C-alpha cells in the first residue's frame, strides 16, 4: 500500500494514522487483540479530520487542490465512463499530452470527454508538462469538441491546470489566439457542455475548456484568474504573500458559487478526494447525471442563448458616483 501524503496542516491526523499503523502491525505480528483500541483511534482520526477540514483557509484549500494523490481526469474517466477511446493530435502541429480526450459512453449515452491531465511521477509529469497546455493542446480539445458537435454528442470537460504554458515556444505558436478561439467556439457549440473543476482552475488555461452550459466544482478545488503565487508576486513583489493573495482572490468553491460563477459544488469524501478516489467518482457521477438531465433536451439555439445570458450575467458592480450624487442631494439632518 502506498504511503499517504499529508499536508502541513494535517500533521495531527498524520500522527494518529501513524499510531494506528503501528498498532495494526503489532496485532498482525502477535497474538494480542488490540482491535478495540485501533477502532477507537480510527474514530478519533475521523473526527479530527472532520474538524480540520471544516475550518479550512483558502490557502489550505489551494494545497488540497494541488495534492499529488488527488484524482486526475483519467481517474474519473476510468471510473465514470465506459468504452473510452482516446483521440490524439490537433491536425496542425503535434499531440499535446497535457490534454486527454476521446469518445466514450456516460450511462450508456455516447459523448466526448476532454480534460487536462497531470502526471503521477516525474517522468509522466514531464511528458504531460504538469498539466500546462500549449496551443496544440487547446486546438486538439477544440477539434474533439467540433467533432462532438458534428455527431450531436454532449461534451464533458474536466479542468485541472495551474494555467496555460507560458514558454516562448507556446507564444510563438499562438497561445493567446488558441485560448481565445476555444472560448469563442465553445460559446457557439450546438451541443450540451458540462464542465467540472476537479483540481486547479488556473487563468486562461482553465477558461479555454470551461465555457459550458453548467459548471460544477469540487469542494476542495480552486478557480481563479491567476495563481495565488502569481498574484502575490505582482501585488507584493514576493510569492511569500501567496496566503494573503488566496484570501483576497475568492478562489474557493463556496465563494464562487455565491458569486454565481459556478452552478454546483460537489462534496468530497472526508479528508478530500485524494482519500477515496472511488467514492469521489461516485459523488461526481451522480452530479454529472443530474447536470446532463437539465440540458439534454434543450435545442441548439436554446443552449447557445443560455450560454450567452450566463456570460453576460457575470460580475456585479456599484455605481459609487451615482451614490455620491444621491448623498449630496439628500437633506442634512
Task: Give an overview in words.
The protein has 333 residues and is α/β, with parallel strands linked by helices. It folds into two domains: 9-55; 63-312, 2-enoyl-CoA Hydratase, Chain A, domain 1 (Alpha-Beta Complex). Helix content is 49%, strand content 15%. The protein contains 15 helices and eight strands. It has helices at 11-29, 35-53, 58-65, 73-80, 122-127, 135-150, 168-172, 175-188, 203-207, 228-235, 242-249, 253-258, 277-295, 300-312, 320-329, and strands at 82-86, 99-106, 109-116, 155-161, 193-202, 214-218, 222-224, 264-266. Strands 1, 2, 3, 4, 5, 6, 7 and 8 form an eight-stranded mixed β-sheet that branches. β5 (193-202), α9 and β6 (214-218) form a beta-alpha-beta unit. α4 packs across α13 and α6 (135-150) runs parallel beside α8 (175-188). The longest helix has 19 residues, at 11-29. The protein is globular and about 70 Å long. The N and C termini lie far apart (73 Å). 37% of the residues are buried.
What's the number of extended β-strand segments? 8
Annotated CATH homologous superfamily of the largest domain = 2-enoyl-CoA Hydratase, Chain A, domain 1
The global form is globular
User: H/E element string?
Assistant: HHHHEEEHHEHHEHEEHHHEHHH
Number of helices: 15
| Biggest β-sheet description | 8 strands, mixed
Number of individual domains:
2
The CATH class of the largest domain: Alpha Beta
Average the pLDDT over all residues and give the rounded result.
91
The CATH topology annotation of the largest domain reads as 2-enoyl-CoA Hydratase, Chain A, domain 1
Structural class: alpha/beta
Radius of gyration from the alpha-carbon trace, in angstroms: 23 Å
Assembly level:
single chain
Amino acid at each position: 500500500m502506498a504511503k499517504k501524503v499529508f499536508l502541513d496542516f494535517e500533521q495531527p491526523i498524520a500522527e494518529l494514522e501513524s499510531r494506528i499503523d503501528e498498532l495494526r502491525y503489532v496485532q498482525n505480528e502477535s497474538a494480542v487483540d488490540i482491535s478495540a483500541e485501533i477502532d477507537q483511534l480510527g474514530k478519533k482520526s475521523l473526527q479530527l479530520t472532520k474538524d480540520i477540514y471544516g475550518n479550512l483557509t483558502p490557502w489550505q484549500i489551494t494545497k488540497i487542490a494541488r495534492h499529488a494523490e488527488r484524482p486526475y481526469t483519467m481517474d474519473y474517466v476510468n471510473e465514470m465512463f465506459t468504452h473510452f477511446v482516446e483521440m490524439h493530435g490537433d491536425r496542425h502541429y503535434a499531440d499535446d499530452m497535457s490534454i486527454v480526450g476521446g469518445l466514450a459512453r456516460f450511462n450508456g449515452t455516447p459523448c466526448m470527454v476532454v480534460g487536462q491531465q497531470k502526471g503521477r511521477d516525474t517522468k509522466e509529469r514531464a511528458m504531460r508538462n504538469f498539466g500546462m497546455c500549449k496551443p496544440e493542446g487547446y486546438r486538439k480539445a477544440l477539434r474533439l469538441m467540433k467533432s462532438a458537435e458534428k455527431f450531436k454528442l454532449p461534451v464533458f470537460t474536466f479542468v485541472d491546470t495551474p494555467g496555460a504554458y507560458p514558454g516562448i515556444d507556446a507564444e510563438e505558436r499562438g497561445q493567446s489566439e488558441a485560448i481565445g478561439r476555444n472560448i469563442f467556439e465553445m460559446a457557439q457549440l450546438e451541443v450540451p457542455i458540462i464542465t467540472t473543476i476537479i483540481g486547479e482552475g488556473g487563468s486562461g488555461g482553465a477558461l479555454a475548456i470551461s465555457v459550458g452550459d453548467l459548471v460544477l466544482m469540487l469542494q476542495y478545488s480552486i478557480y481563479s484568474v491567476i495563481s495565488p503565487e502569481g498574484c502575490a508576486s505582482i501585488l507584493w513583489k514576493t510569492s511569500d504573500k501567496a496566503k494573503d493573495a488566496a484570501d483576497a482572490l475568492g478562489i474557493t468553491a463556496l465563494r464562487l458559487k455565491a458569486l454565481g460563477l459556478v452552478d454546483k459544488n460537489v462534496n468530497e469524501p472526508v479528508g478530500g478526494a485524494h482519500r477515496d478516489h472511488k467514492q469521489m467518482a461516485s459523488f461526481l457521477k451522480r452530479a454529472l447525471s443530474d447536470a446532463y438531465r437539465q440540458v439534454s433536451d434543450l435545442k441548439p439555439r436554446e443552449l447557445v442563448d443560455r450560454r450567452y445570458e450566463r456570460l453576460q450575467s457575470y460580475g456585479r458592480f456599484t455605481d459609487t458616483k451615482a451614490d455620491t450624487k444621491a448623498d449630496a442631494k439628500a437633506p442634512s439632518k
